[in-house]
Amino acid sequence: MKEMQHTLKESVTFKGLGIHTGHEVTMVVNTAPANHGIVFNRTDIDNENRVPALAEYVVDTSRGTTIRKDDVVIHTIEHLMAALHGLRIDNALIEIDADEIPIMDGSSTYFVQKFQEIGNEEQDQERQYYEVKEKVEFSVPEKGIEIAIYPDDHFSVDVMIDYNSKVLGHQYASLPKIDDFAENMSKARTFAFWHELEFLFNNNLIKGGSLDNAIVVVEHEVPQKDVDRLAGLFNKPSIEVKEGFLNNLDLHYPNEPARHKLLDLVGDFYLVGKPIRGKVVAKRPGHYANTEVAKIIRQNIKKNRKKLNIPEYDPNKPPVYDVVGIQEVLPHRSPFLLVDRIIHLDQERVTGIKNVTMNEPFFVGHFPGSPVMPGVLQVEAMAQVGGILVLNTVEDPENYLTYFLKIDGVKFKKMVVPGDTLIFDLELMEPIRRGLAHMKGKAYVGETMVMEAELMAQITKVKNN
Prior knowledge:
It is built from nine helices and 26 strands. The chain is α+β, with helices and mostly antiparallel strands.
């Protein structure tokens, strides 16, 4: 049975402090269309302000996961990402008016509860997975860090931590399946050791930290003068500090620190850009190791795409031609202009985009109640993209027309429906001779090929009347 993508049914707002920056922040998690992915949008910055939640944008992991694109930075995304991953939310646009995600209580539970109240909405595109085919591993031997992912038919995680502390020693946590995340992992709060606090503060971290959003582990009784000094740094009242957990805090789980490390891993691994099918075994994981593994998988995805020659489409990048530029080259006009953008063009290859919407006139009758883009129009759209490639070989394309002489080997592999973004990729099979161009074309929706064909076209100069 196919699994479909999901987004939230409606937008939801969160307000709070960033744990490291101390900045007040309002964050709105919005619905997003299929194949959009998780994208952050800084509303306090003008111009281009979006950062995709992908591992290649990770720039810092000192005490949380920070992503950056150009000058746009978002800190501490892991708890929100864990909630989105744990509830199988594939697509969301996250608008935020500061540079850090609100820490809430230091876990994912506030995000999970709000998302569950609103509910998910099924979308019309199939969910894509990264399936682990062979062992993926990363280690830092001198720190005892090891992460391995083994092939499996679903996502699961086993985490082991050991801080060589009589208060926080060896702990183990397990997530047999992602659907257990909300109930068994989402309440696990972030933690730090007492001896780390002054260092973190002096390095511009945990400025928004408090006993309301973190567990503080105390390995031995602390002299009162040290407590008073640290309380002054944080502008907090002084307290008595004894061995154990600060303020005699009640843990949500006996192994809450290990579960929080697992929560962080679930969030960081969602930076792969899609859910994973594989068994994760992690010893002493952290944001650096987690995101390095995510980067390895992202590289594997890109290598696989290149092996399959699947073109990549980033809607944020300016196109070679927008629809106005296309109309300066092709004679076609609405409603028969079936290409919206050209995103790559050289002497041998072209890649074009067709956004398929319910507003297309052919959906009125093809078919009522079950709209499907006609195969012949997919071929026509491909031919128009190919026409751009052919006309790119002449100096004055406005004075030429492209006529298609032959279409062979047409195969329709999957239905194209409203909401799909068709990516047409065509390349010359041989040099153009005597005005004849022989091209191989493939059409994709995401990473799925939906159609392919070979086309033969002839370039003809327009005769002046």
